[in-house]
Write a structure and sequence with these properties.
Blueprint: H1 2-6, H2 51-67, H3 72-76, H4 114-125, H5 148-152, H6 169-175, H7 183-191, H8 198-208, H9 213-217, H10 242-245, E1 252-254, E2 268-271, E3 277-278, H11 320-323, H12 332-335, H13 337-340, H14 350-353, H15 369-373
Antiparallel strand pairs: 1-2, 2-3
Helix pairs in contact: 4-8
The protein binds a DNA duplex (12 and 12 nucleotides) through helix 6 and helix 13.
Length: 377
DNA sequence: TAACACGTATTC
DNA sequence: GAATACGTGTTA
């Protein structure tokens, strides 16, 4: 029932072409914007016109969500464009590979083309400050995009890439998002397609690739988290070089078990353009507390003095809250942004909610392996 | 026990 | 230096 209410804006249009529609009842197929191979394909993103209504709807949902244990995937699938938080462009939030994780399972704008949503909307919705760089593996520069690996993604990119729309993504990322009181600004940005920076989109195109949302969020991931958001539960890929699988760049490989050389606190790896596995450097392994690139000293607060064991943990980047991109703007953390120093409650990493040191391996997979393999074949 | 407040690490 | 966010002590 929640979702039905959240997908009602089924005909919001993109204003890439300069059309600013005043009605939300227009159908996609009849709008002239849809005729061409416009960047955003058949799924337009336009400002949510009825912003007030959207906000009310969201707040009511937020209340509901607060009182119920709603599957975070469902929550994530909405993105809450009506959030009071300005959604700035930022680099992907995915750990290690900085993958721009597709978030939406269902477009808040009712777009049924989830592929387009992945490649455009989600990329565009990335926001906030730039995530920390946890590895030294450089991102492929935009100029490397027309690579065979990139073209491999083409079948998933109906409508092509909305190129040349942005360019200011980095500036936005730098300014991060001021939690509340910027709803209007968000609207403004949305309306001007500033979400879609060429920079961000480019990176997403390269890194996200086949990391379809389904692989990332639509598995039977329970609220218990445990990093099960990979969507490939039950597949032991730990001994599979990504190259052997012929996986395209951006594919998330979930490594089960701990008998590999990869940090077993994270079972996600991502293929690069060269089909190498990017070890998830984001997590601090319990047995090897040294993240790949972190040079920070041990955490000093708390006076534990045990060095690396007290290092600040990072968001896992794969759990539902982490994949949420927009602050709700209504929770206490958002409201007390300045004094609370806390991330939005809805974005608080599941892993960080757990007590430090209680990190454990995934529970036995709940998804049959055959089900898991469907993501790959 | 959850919410809050604050110190502090991290990043830009 | 500002913004963000994690860790932890305090409070309701």
């Amino acid at each position: 029932m929640v979702m039905s209410g959240l997908t009602r804006s089924s005909s919001v249009h993109n204003d890439h072409s300069g059309h600013n529609l005043s009605s939300t009842t227009t159908t996609h197929g009849h709008h002239p914007d849809q005729s061409g191979a416009v960047a955003v394909g058949g799924c337009g993103l336009t400002p949510v016109l009825d912003y007030t209504a959207e906000m009310e709807r969201y707040q009511s949902f937020a209340n509901f969500y607060t009182k119920t244990n709603v599957n975070m995937n469902a929550v994530n699938s909405m993105n809450f464009p009506q959030s009071a938080k300005l959604a700035h462009i930022t680099a992907p939030m995915f750990p290690g590979g900085r993958l721009g994780v597709g978030v939406a399972g269902v477009s808040p704008w009712g777009c049924h083309d989830n592929i387009n949503m992945n490649m455009n909307v989600n990329a565009a919705m990335l926001w906030g400050r730039k995530p920390p760089v946890h590895q030294t593996t450089p991102l492929a520069p935009p100029t490397t995009h027309p690579s065979p690996s990139t073209t491999h993604m083409q079948p998933h990119r109906t409508g092509g890439v909305a190129g040349g729309q942005g360019g200011e993504g980095k500036q936005h990322a730098r300014h991060g998002g001021h939690a509340s009181s910027q709803g209007q600004e968000m609207h403004h940005h949305h309306g001007n397609n500033n979400f879609q920076s060429g920079y961000a989109a480019a990176n997403h195109m390269t890194k996200q690739g086949h990391a379809h949302q389904d692989m990332l969020s639509l598995s039977n991931r329970s609220s218990s988290g445990n990093g099960g958001g990979g969507g490939v539960n039950g597949v032991n890929m730990s001994n599979f070089p990504a190259g052997m699988l012929g996986l395209p760049p951006g594919v998330i490989v979930m490594a089960m078990g701990s008998h590999n050389n990869i940090s077993d606190s994270s079972h996600f790896q991502m293929t690069t353009n060269h089909n190498q596995l990017l070890s998830d450097c984001h997590h601090v392994n319990q047995t090897n507390p040294s993240p790949c690139s972190s040079t920070s000293p041990g955490m000093t607060s708390g006076g534990q003095g045990s060095g690396a064991s007290k290092r600040k943990r990072k968001r896992c980047g794969v759990c539902a809250p982490c994949r949420r991109l927009i602050n709700c703007g209504v929770c206490s953390a958002c409201r007390n942004r300045k004094t609370g120093h806390q991330i939005c409650k809805f974005r608080k990493c599941d892993e960080l909610k757990k007590k430090a040191g209680s990190i454990q391996l995934e529970s036995p997979p709940s998804v049959p392996s055959g089900e898991a393999f469907r993501w790959f074949f």
